[in-house]
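Action item from last week, closing it out:
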Amino acid sequence: MRNPRIHRSWCGIGLLFLALSLVVGISAAAHGQASPPTNPSSTPYRSVRCPAPANPSSLYFECVGQPFAYDETLTKDWAGFRTELSGLGITPTASYTTQLMGNTSGGQSRGFTYSGTLQASIFWDLHKLLGIPGLSFEVGGAWSTGKNLSADYIGNSFTVQGAYTAPDNGTNNLTLGEMYLRQRLFNNSLVIAAGRLAPGSTFAIMPVLYNYVNAAIDPGLFVLGINDATFAFYPPGAEWGAQAIYQITPRFEVAAGVFNTNLSSALGGKGGLNFAFQQGNLGALSVVQVNYLLNDAPGDTGLPGQYSFGGFYNSNKFSSLSNPNTTKIGTYSVYGMFQQMVYRDGEAGSQKGLTVWGEAALAPKSTVNTMPFFVGGGLSYQGPLPRRDNDIAAAGVIYGAFSRYIPRTSAETVIEINYQITFNRWLSITPNIQYVIKPSGSSAIGNAFVLGTQLAINF
């Protein structure tokens, strides 16, 4: 039974965050306390880890609020309004991603669907607004529309449209997203956050994976969410939690987080407004990850890479796959992933070249985990054609084996090939091919051949 005192306290924190955002805005307007405005267009931020800071749908948690060149967006400087907001410490970002895809053969039936997500966020620099060094506030939201080709026509588990992000009620919906306070300490080497968070915005993700369309690749190990839905990705879900990232050296950093296990909240229940701390859930989701960042520090000239190892433990109750009438306490998973540039076209700092990547996840407790084993790998090449320096060609393969306690299933494999045509820094179109082998691990469903395209715009 839910503890009403805990419920009221966590809801009160949510209301406090909302009130804080209003107070901040009113304070800035009334007192005009702000640092002199800067022009990010003259000093664009570039990093292996934060390649697109103007796009709220493809950001590491630690990249939120990074400056970006205004020509990375369709609306540019909003006739000077963006510069004025930046001077106040307010940075709005927005993007729209739509995917038009069809199942041409195999699967459950032929069909075509549209899916799309309009995502926006507002970053509040409370150092500029309130004079508190290192403190910031982030709030975001998304509007998800369309249908799910995988569910409606293919019947597979690795959703072929990453832009399909509807909440748990399965309808087109507007959802409130992550909403948290963030504090930077010790010359930015320690970053702490608390509030409404999605583990999938910090853990088990890599920048190279944003070059794909399938939701099981972009932005990271979505298989963790298949086995434990409270390992949330936003959109659609966020939950109460706290997390920290500590950069021990320029190459080594460790990240850890503790999150609530309210399933409805993690799936975007009530449009992201389910602030209840407990609804039949127990315990907490604890996550730890270690990153090795090769040639990512300022001044490094070698080929950059990221190597990550982590795991999580959830102390909640789970339905048993071996005996559906019973539950078991706790589940865990361990994972590893890497991306490494192996060839660079140009001088040090050039983004052009070939990057290879790989990932694997193991969830040994097959009595409660739908997919105990997952592995994937691929390559991505930026600038494959002359005078097309920002285009990206990508190919990848993922494989997931189902629990032996799920009858008549083996494993599902997806092969994806795409080519991102970058018209400018705010608009891209990505023709995409996917081949799904044994959808949901079933031999009774024919292999599916999927064709489509993705359109992405940064506003």
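Closing note: The chain is about 10% helix and 40% strand.
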